[in-house]
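FAQ

Q: What does a record look like?
A: Structure on top, sequence underneath. For example:
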């Protein structure tokens, strides 16, 4: 696995090629005026796990919302927010 360095102009013009390199397991560093400003790498297991947990959390929230009963007095969340602002 190697590292490739591209200036911003060249990186902009060769983005598809850079992404191909990353898919092959290479690391791409983009520089501006000779200084590194970005690093392109393939997502690792940690990022995929974080995404999976986030999707599960959203699904859990959606399920929980289905079980929440409406307020017996007919008040909405907005009503409670406004009441809280008065104090």
């Amino acid at each position: 696995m190697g590292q490739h360095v591209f200036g911003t102009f060249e990186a902009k013009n060769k983005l598809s090629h850079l992404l191909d390199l990353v898919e092959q397991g290479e690391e791409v560093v983009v520089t501006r005026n000779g200084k590194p400003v970005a690093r392109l790498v393939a997502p690792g297991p940690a990022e995929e796990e974080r995404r999976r947990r986030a999707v599960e959390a959203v699904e859990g929230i959606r399920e929980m919302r289905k079980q929440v009963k409406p307020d017996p007095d007919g008040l909405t969340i907005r009503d409670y927010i406004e009441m809280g602002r008065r104090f």
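Q: Is there anything notable about this one?
A: Helices lie at 8-13, 15-23, 45-67, 77-85.
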